[in-house]
Amino acid sequence: MKVLVIGGGGREHALVWKIAQSPKVETIYCAPGNGGISGLAQCVDIAATDTQGLLSFAKDKGIGLTVVGPEAPLSVGVVDLFMENGLRVFGPNKLAATLEGSKAFSKELMQKHGIPTARYETFTDADAAIHALDSFGCPVVIKADGLAAGKGVIIAQDREEAVSAIHEMMQDKKFGDAGSRVVIEEFLTGKEASILAFVDGKTAIPMVSAQDYKRALDKDMGLNTGGMGAVSPAFYYDEKTAKAAKRNIIEKTLAALNAEGITYKGVLYFGLMITEEGPKLLEYNARFGDPETEVVLPRLKSDLVDIMEAVIDGKLAGHTIEWRAEKAVGVVLASGGYPEEYKNGYVIEGLDTDAAEDAVVFHAGTRKQEDAIVTAGGRVLVVTALGETTEEARQKAYTRAAEIRFKDVQYRKDIAQR
Ligand SMILES: Nc1ncnc2c1ncn2[C@@H]1O[C@H](COP(=O)(O)OP(=O)(O)O)[C@@H](O)[C@H]1O
Ligand SMILES: [Mg+2]
Q: DSSP letters of 111-180?
């Protein structure tokens, strides 16, 4: 079978890497891919959101399975377009992807169907939003409704900060249309965990848990980023929490979607806050998380292509998915300056060494330039290692990371440290 993966980050490298292990797969294409992906797949120069371009390519090549990585193509309906043209595609359709594309929509679904989540209100008028602040107290959470590349959430410590966040989003249009509606939420305290689940419209099978590290610097200091590392399993996701999440959040979401007439197929990501009252749902993502995927897929024993086909065919029920007992730790190597200004084009050294067996290096932002691999993004690489214990995985990942060099490389030293 020929497979097309849409996207070009660390998540897509992990997807391509895992898909390449399936005996069913003869050729993999990736649009647009990156420098690391080009070792496993044929990279094609089509943007992830160029849905017509992707469709023509898939038809031309006789692609048997298309896998959508990022949220942007989902939210513009790439899955609908492929399905209308009789192509097999893994990912939710445009309507189902609204679970991620609109926070107001997903919060309404949670509230209506009794899924535990933070108390909230939605606003399209800045004055009304400011007026409501007092009823939430501080800290308070202000969220742009639409897609904002992980930057649309402000935790305001005081009223002044909350007011300026509302102004920035609603009046200054800092996130464009994504901020013309805002959600104001009660601040929840607890520990976060990410649960990804395979969903075929009727059945949801959760994957092993993960936890990501969003802040740029050690001890959760510095700016928010796309993610500086991840660990699987998540530290605080015990049996009891898993049971509660399955019953009160995952199963209820499936029932809610069915009641609303939404057929969700693909990966559904549950962003959880584990509070004293049990797990609460912060948000959905309509896809594999990044960098969670880079620690979850290396633990997957089963054939990913089999699972994806079962999802597309609505045959997930009874499908067994096997996982390795080993723990996984992934460390992101970023460009100096990220998440603010940084430079691209630095040669990366130390990618091919003997130690490579102990750790996988997923490329997030790299480009092939003649015989070299150069930096081409804020997040450059994700170094993932497996170990009997989280500590062992952590040490292996950091040992491997230390062998890799490029100018101004920056990474956190405390990923997966308790
Ligand atoms: N109600 C809340 N209480 C406390 N922290 C929150 C709340 N909502 C979001 N956060 C924090 O903000 C982060 C981003 O929020 P999230 O809803 O996941 O949006 P996105 O990932 O789209 O930016 C969360 O990972 C969490 O750390
Ligand atoms: Mg999130």
A: HHTT--B--EEEES-HHHHHHHGGGT-SSEEEEESS--TT--EEEESSHHHHHHHHHHHHTS-TTGGGGS
pTM flag (> 0.90)? yes
Mean pLDDT of the chain: 96
Ligand 1: which of 191, 283, 284, 288 to mutate, judged by most atoms within 8 Å of the beta carbon?
A: 283
State both tokens at 123: 């606003």
CATH architecture of 327-402: Alpha-Beta Complex (3.90)
In ligand 1, which atom is closest to the CA atom of 283?
Answer: 17
Task: Please give the Cα distance from 400 to 365 (Å, whole number).
Answer: 18
> Which band of pLDDT confidence, cut at 50, 70 and 90, is reported for residue 118?
very high
Q: Which two tokens stand for residue 128?
A: 């009304």
CATH topology of domain 191-313: D-amino Acid Aminotransferase; Chain A, domain 1 (3.30.470)
d(Cα 70, Cα 287) in Å, to the nearest integer?
7
pLDDT band at 356 (very low <50, low <70, confident <90, very high): low
